[in-house]
């Protein structure tokens, strides 16, 4: 929408084919491009896990509309060389697309669609292959000023897509459904919309990729005006703020909270840094209609917080968790495990952290822990660590194979994760389940919660797993519904497996045997036999050697810098800014 609006302001009238929202078949996509024969196709590849579909799309367009110039923007462009050489993309937009897309269209228009490489070299924010086959990068365009961060025009969605994909029902989100204010008579029939309050982030976490440089909050008056429009045009009464980084500008946040209270909407926010809140602010947010706050806590290990460069302490995490609970605001504890440098000791620290922050909540914490294995995304130190250590191969073809392997990946599929640690793969794969099991055990013991009768528990398990019957209302069913609701969205990786409860209740003394069985059946079902044998031999080898591997003490960026060889070729020099991100 931002690119469309920028092009419109420059006098162009682009067509928006919302593949992500409309979900056409490849046959429908083929007919669409065969009929329209566009001069230029701009592909918005926001996430690096879109590579598989992008390659299929490019193949279709090349076949039915061979004169179309293919331009790609978004985070996937951090893999520019692969996109140019192996996927068939003509031009990548590196960084913010609003200004670059307009400048690029002027050059393409002047050249009647031909690739005038000399003219392209004068447009910042582009990568392409020169006539001699060398990769070119023209440098970053200047970031947009805060006042020019786009104001979304929802009529674009009405014209080209399904507005219902963007103006939805609040009951689709468990956090809204849990808040009693949602069920007030005055909110009956109200819709839910998504907005952003800022662009960019103040942090530079080593697993996170971004093109945006700096942090630019949107004017509060602009946000308030947009919400009023949504209220009048679409009957919106619920807002999801999907910022990368909400609340880092304290003055803007205070003014926004005040404005939201006057607008009488219920709202939730993501991307909040733990250092951005205090008890007073959270109380004001709750009073102004906030139902949920989601933080990037990531770990309970002080050492891993440093490795991730979170610029936050364990105490910051603990304070944010406690203050949020005391304010009566919902949250889910999102952890990232198996980063380079992770050890059983740091996993134990994360486990203790989760025990502390969940032990006093009113229901078992299974649905409040989202534990994800780290995924190497291009343009991050984690990806460079994996590339330089040979974890994703040594050639462009190897890198592409990795990008294809993580395309459309399910967050709950732990078998696709790489092993960035110095421990064997089976040990690493056991960490998520071990954390959940130990935290659940602690919760039951800390609160003296009686375990259900064995036969009633088995009946419940049968109903849910095989007969799909709804469970009677109560705390347990709310837990299971939260898991179901959030798993549909694909963002949170919550434990859907009631087996944790079974082990805690009845089989805790033999938990390691059960976890081993769990892990091995996962391996057999999802890993090639050769990989399975390799995983088992790695487990045996580490134990036969005795002792833990020596752990790195340097920062991840320092490790990557030491691993990076001198940049010799033009390709290497052109790719380095993309590999570094901003």
Secondary-structure map:
Layout: H1 2-9, H2 19-22, H3 26-36, E1 40-44, H4 51-64, E2 69-73, H5 80-87, E3 91-93, H6 97-110, H7 117-120, E4 126-129, E5 135-137, H8 155-160, H9 174-178, E6 191-195, E7 198-200, E8 215-217, H10 220-234, E9 236-241, H11 250-263, E10 266-272, H12 279-287, E11 290-295, H13 302-308, H14 314-326, E12 333-337, H15 344-358, E13 369-373, H16 381-388, H17 396-405, H18 425-447, H19 454-467, H20 475-489, H21 499-507, H22 511-526, H23 529-545, H24 556-563, H25 570-580
Parallel strand pairs: 1-2, 2-3, 6-9, 9-10, 10-11, 12-13
Antiparallel strand pairs: 3-4, 4-5, 7-8
Helix pairs in contact: 1-6, 3-4, 10-11, 11-12, 15-18, 16-24, 18-21
Q: Which tags fit this structure?
A:
globular, four-stranded parallel sheet, alpha/beta, 25 helices, five-stranded mixed sheet, 582 residues
Account of the protein in words:
The chain has 582 residues and is α/β, with parallel strands linked by helices. The protein is 48% helix and 10% strand. The protein has helices spanning 2-9, 19-22, 26-36, 51-64, 80-87, 97-110, 117-120, 155-160, 174-178, 220-234, 250-263, 279-287, 302-308, 314-326, 344-358, 381-388, 396-405, 425-447, 454-467, 475-489, 499-507, 511-526, 529-545, 556-563, 570-580, and strands spanning 40-44, 69-73, 91-93, 126-129, 135-137, 191-195, 198-200, 215-217, 236-241, 266-272, 290-295, 333-337, 369-373. Strands 1-2-3-4-5 form a 5-stranded mixed β-sheet, sandwiched between helices. The chain has a 4-stranded parallel β-sheet with strand order 6-9-10-11. A two-stranded antiparallel sheet has the order 7-8. It starts with a helix and ends with a helix.
